[in-house]
Design brief:
- By secondary structure, the chain is mostly helical.
- The protein has a single domain, classed as Formiminotetrahydrofolate cyclodeaminase monomer, up-and-down helical bundle (Four Helix Bundle (Hemerythrin (Met), subunit A), Up-down Bundle).
- Helix content is 77%, strand content 0%.
- The longest helix is centred in the middle third of the chain and has 39 residues, at 101-139.
- The N and C termini lie far apart (44 Å).
- The relative contact order is 0.15.
- The model has no long low-confidence stretch (mean pLDDT 95).
Length: 211
Amino acid sequence: MDTSKIWEWTTEEFLAVSASSSPTPGGGSVSAYVGALAAAMTCMVARLTLGKEKYREVEPQVQEILAQAERVLALLKTGLSQDIAEFSNFMAVLKLPKSTAEEKTVRTEKLQKALVSATDTPLGIAQNCYKILQLAQELAPIGNLGAISDVGVAAYLAESALKSAMLSVDINLPQIKDEGYQERVKAERTRLLEQATALCAETVAVVQSRM
């Protein structure tokens, strides 16, 4: 099945290929998919809030939340496709010849670049999931009461997707030789994980208080 056209698949096709022995879509891609669902729930509640007399005062804020959530949704969709492409690129580099010293040097250099790129992609997915958590937190106290539980769904999904995407970062990072890069990624990892947990808990608490 052509993974370059993944967004043309039906949900059944996506699940079938994900469950198969095919290495893609893998963990990073599935994390992006779940993050995209979190973004979609945020967009839905925002749309259900807009245009309602009861929520007229918060309409400008909700419009901004919707606009940002739509942008992040697009980024997560791109991240899913990019994660698959990164895996294909990494596998292609692994198959490069290594018979001579020169070939080994070229292969090692390209492998390091591929590893960094394959780490940056799930890290970006995690960062976009964090953005959805922030938007869900903003929407929780002002969103339409009739759909407020779905803001909680968005928060739970975004936190899970963020943590899941970070596993793809964790598995690649030890193989990267650039210590400065490793330190930067580890610091960002710690920041995202700590703040995501707090954001999710705060958002769900507000959601539950309005149910």
